[in-house]
Amino acid sequence: MAFTLGLETVFGSSLKVSSPATTTNAALSYPIKTSSVISSPTMTPNVVAPKFPLRTSSSIIVRASSSSSSASLSTSVAETEGIKIVSIPTKPIEGQKTGTSGLRKKVKVFIQENYLANWIQALFNSLPPEDFKNGLLVLGGDGRYFNKEASQIIIKIAAGNGVGKILVGKEGIMSTPAVSAVIRKKKANGGFIMSASHNPGGPEYDWGIKFNYNSGQPAPESITDKIYGNTLSISEIRKADIPDVDLSCLGVTNYGNFSVEVVDPVTDYLDLMEQVFDFELIKSLLSRSDFRFTFDSMHAVTGAYAKPIFVDKLGANPDSIANGVPLEDFGHGHPDPNLTYAKDLVNTMFGENGPDFGAASDGDGDRNMILGKGFFVTPSDSVAIIAANAQDAIPYFLAGPKGLARSMPTSGALDRVAEKLNLPFFEVPTGWKFFGNLMDAGKLSICGEESFGTGSDHIREKDGIWAVLAWLSIIAYRNKDKKPGERLVSVSDVVKDHWATYGRNFFSRYDYEECESEGANKMVEYLRDVISKSKTGDKYGSYVLQFADDFTYTDPVDGSVVSKQGIRFVFTDGSRIIFRLSGTGSAGATVRVYIEQFEPVASKHDMDAQTALKPLIDLALSLSKLKDFTGREKPTVIT
Fold it and tell me: What residue ranges in 323-420 does DSSP mark as E strands?
């Protein structure tokens, strides 16, 4: 059985979204339309699937648009092996330039006539035909509001453009790391990821889409720039006139020479994790009566992965998984694993008799936060500690890492590990896509961003659960010879041991979310004027300037150059102040201010970061005139 949307329903001019009064997990109600094409014998889908009951589970009620919609003017352009392909007239829509991680807007923007369809068609117009014709594409998402409806649109346009097969996660769910893993394992041509990452979900909130290429990496700027260019000139959308695919049932649905396979979103990813890590080692830790573990899925996509991995495979207590059911609005929460938005986990870990180890992941499963009992591990320290311990604790790195890399704003803690281990080191702009070329060239194994992103070359995305398993591996390795009753090496012990060896990079990030874009851009232009006039030796209070610039990166693999990636003030003692406008939000501008200071003296390592950094923080705020330009008295989030 399949529910069918007519062309005017999918691309109509007046999509109306209504929210149920009680829950965001109500059933999806589509108006059922009849179609001579769909009812013909040649268009009856051939479904090969286990016999599971049909289930619908979304909260969007999509109603057909008026007959004046441009979709009603669609014409048949081809019919191949029983699939009718229609051409739908359209016009360019402003504002479809991708940011750091794809196109992100409010749901109410994406449900406008042809908004999503235009971008998907522009993508196919931007790729060489050999990159998708008769090929395999993967489709997954974080389970947020509008994903199921978007899945049907993407599938039909893919079929209309000659894709041979779509492999989609059950219910449209598949984490960003898992999509990358599946692309690589299945040797797919690429894949779509439906997510706005760590941003809120629901009818009033955010939605997003991005495309990953055949190595599983986010599409490079050479492709995203072409997509944007094609959104400015698009005139038609090519779509297969086929029924909606039942995403609730595992199995294959065939439509002539096009097929859709609904797969379990966990299986391939779990297989990969078992190849990377020593699951028996981790299980020996999680099964100890003197070690307590908790993982907060934040009602996001890792809720689909937490139980199969941590409970079923590694033996964790089922009660250790918090907020483990993916919800379309993330339980009215903000699925960003930091000290502000994961406050329930933070309160648990810092409460009386808190667990020994806690972690959280974000909306699409690519970010992570690591906590010990009463102890927060900064993302900058986290990637450095994983790199320093990887060869001993993680079988995948038995021969040692090939190289290390971080995003420019991330602290220099990883640099010190690379120097000590005599490993190649790279500093790249913010955006995981910049790590991909280095990995593909065999130059990079472990990398991270201060924005709670950590990963390695096992895939081409950052990976939240990978980071949690890496930390559990390190703790398990440090305690593998501990007998019952002996004091265990804790998360804080591991971090403080690292500081004693490498020194501590005090680090903090101030986020000012949804600022007025005009004021934020004026602040950046002001700072660019400041750095143009700066020179080595300039004094800023007690700090002496080494250099100031707007970060430019030249890719060592392909020679491509990207500029204006963040304004840096670097001082002679190694301290840094960095200013960036984030490209991951869906509205306004997020101003990020990064402050870092290196401290080699062990007796000062236990200082509170905000105390240690206060002189630099005060300098950053006065130097940028942030309050004057944005009107903001305080940051939205402090990390």
Answer: 357-361, 368-372, 375-377, 404-407
| Cα–Cα dist 612/599, whole Å | 9
Say if residue 463's pLDDT is above 70: yes
Q: Please, what is the average pLDDT of the chain?
A: 88
How confident is the model at residue 591, as a pLDDT? 94
Handedness of CA 525, 526, 529, 534 (dihedral sign): negative
Tally the C-alpha atoms within 13 A of residue 106's C-alpha that lie toward its C-beta: 10
Rounded Cα distance between 68 and 89, Å, is 12
The C-alpha R_g of the chain, in whole angstroms, comes to: 25
Angle (CA) 203-125-76 rounded to 5° is 85
CA separation (Å) from 134 to 137, 160, 166, 530?
A: 10, 11, 10, 53
Using one digit for the tens of pLDDT, what is the confidence trace for 491-513? 999 999 999 999 999 999 999 99
Tokens representing residue 50 in the block: 């286990």
The residue written with tokens 């013909």 in the block is: 40
* Percent of the chain clearing pLDDT 70 (strictly above): 86
Query: Any idea which of 9-13, 75-79, 213-217, 437-441 has the lowest mean pLDDT?
Result: 9-13
Residue with tokens 């504002």: 95
Q: Which residues contact 133 (CB under 8 A, 6 or more apart)?
A: 162, 163, 164
* Phi (first) and psi of residue 173, to 5 degrees: -95, 130
Q: Please choose, from the candidates 376, 379, 357, the residue with its C-alpha nearest in 3D space to the C-alpha of residue 368.
A: 379
Residues taking part in catalysis: 197
- Which candidate, 170, 353, 182, places its Cα nearest to that of 272? 182
Collapsed DSSP state (helix, strand, coil) of residue 140? strand
Dihedral sign from CA coordinates of 282, 286, 291, 293: positive
Q: Which two tokens stand for residue 336?
A: 């960003």
Strands (E), 183-304: 190-194, 206-212, 236-240, 251-255, 258-263, 293-296
Mean of pLDDT values over 578-607: 86
CB atoms within 10 A of CB 97: 14
Q: Report the alpha-carbon distance of residue 296 to residue 498 in Å, rounded.
A: 26
User: pLDDT value at position 431?
Assistant: 85
Helix (H) or strand (E) holding 226: helix 221-231
CB 447 within 8 A of CB 367: no
Amino acid identity for residue 192 in this structure = F
561-597 as b/e: b if 16+ CB within 10 A: eeeebbbbbbbeebbbbbbbbbbbbbeebbbbbbbbb
Task: Give the pLDDT of residue 39.
Answer: 28
pLDDT, tens only, 338-394? 999 999 999 999 999 999 999 999 999 999 999 999 999 999 999 999 999 999 999
Q: Which residues contact 98 (CB under 8 A, 6 or more apart)?
A: 210, 224, 227, 228
Which residues share a beta bridge with 97?
none
Q: Which of 16-25, 143-152, 538-547, 571-580 has the lowest average pLDDT?
A: 16-25
Please say whether the beta carbons of 158 and 261 come within 8 A. no
- CA pair distance 557, 564, nearest whole angstrom: 20
Chain length of the chain: 639
Structure tokens given for 212? 């990953």
**What was the pLDDT predicted at 75?**
64
Provide CB contacts within 8 A for 272, sequence distance 6+. Answer: 181, 185, 458, 459
For 143, how many CA atoms within 13 A lie in the half-sphere containing its CB? 31
